[in-house]
């Protein structure tokens, strides 16, 4: 029986998925099952996947009507019954030792393993590293690049919220509240392709789905309030304001409304100890100005400087 399931949600990726499939086929660790969950593709995705996996019994193609990436991942969760699970996005690809390194990093008590990753741009590569605290505080909450004990997900009925952006954040923040110990493979083994159609680079009102995500998380008694407060500081006061700044109708009142949202939930958010221990100096300075309500100054800095910022 296979030890690990690989779940790959797919939607209209005919021009991108071949590299992903080949990188999974070329894994040095062979004892896996890979589920390609086709979320209602209307291009040649289905025929290409079937052609590339051929009769390899380690690969399973499954079609479903379109419901979004979260619903595709949830179906993958239903299907898998292996000891471990990992997720791969269909336009990304893996180092050949990805599965081997992650599965061999599990020791007694370890519930999740993760690896460093590279952001792959058209003309450059940006390496991303993190530590255990970063991981548990959801600095990089994407579910790819990680391997998880399946039993933790199923025992605690953890799923992706469907129909919302930031489903990774909701899933991962919930998951880590049940995690006892993590191990990090300090090598870049996952290659995250940067494209203008991703959530990170798409600026619509869907960015405010993050409020609904935190409403869901706030109802979870297993997540510590101090942790939840920091997550809102990082992902809303930093992340959402940054994303909003790219909208053509962005004004300083947008910053004010976002700040008021967090202040109403956490009036003394600026005293959260993780700000000092987890954030860089530039972010701490930014948050100091935000706490002092220097909103117009922040607006000007973002409006004219956001192309040079990196989250």
Give a structural overview.
- It is a single chain.
- This protein is globular.
- The chain has helices at residues 17-25, 45-53, 69-79, 98-103, 132-136, 150-155, 167-176, 209-218, 225-244, 252-265, 273-278, 281-291, 295-305, and strands spanning 4-10, 32-39, 59-64, 84-87, 93-94, 112-120, 125-128, 146-149, 182-193.
- Strands 1, 2, 3, 4, 5, 6, 7, 8 and 9 form a nine-stranded mixed beta sheet that branches.
- The longest helix has 20 residues, at 225-244.
- The chain contains 13 helices and nine strands.
- The chain is an alpha/beta fold.
Report strand %. 15-25%
Task: Choose one word for the global shape.
Answer: globular
Q: Work out the radius of gyration.
A: 20 Å
Average of the residue pLDDT scores: 94
Count of beta strands? 9
Largest sheet: 9 strands, mixed
Low-confidence stretches: none
Report the oligomer. Answer: single chain
Helix content: 40-55%
CA(first)-CA(last) distance: 41 Å
Topology of this protein?
Blueprint: E1 4-10, H1 17-25, E2 32-39, H2 45-53, E3 59-64, H3 69-79, E4 84-87, E5 93-94, H4 98-103, E6 112-120, E7 125-128, H5 132-136, E8 146-149, H6 150-155, H7 167-176, E9 182-193, H8 209-218, H9 225-244, H10 252-265, H11 273-278, H12 281-291, H13 295-305
Parallel strand pairs: 1-2, 1-4, 2-3, 6-9
Antiparallel strand pairs: 4-8, 5-9, 6-7, 6-8
Helix pairs in contact: 1-2, 7-8, 8-9, 9-10, 10-13
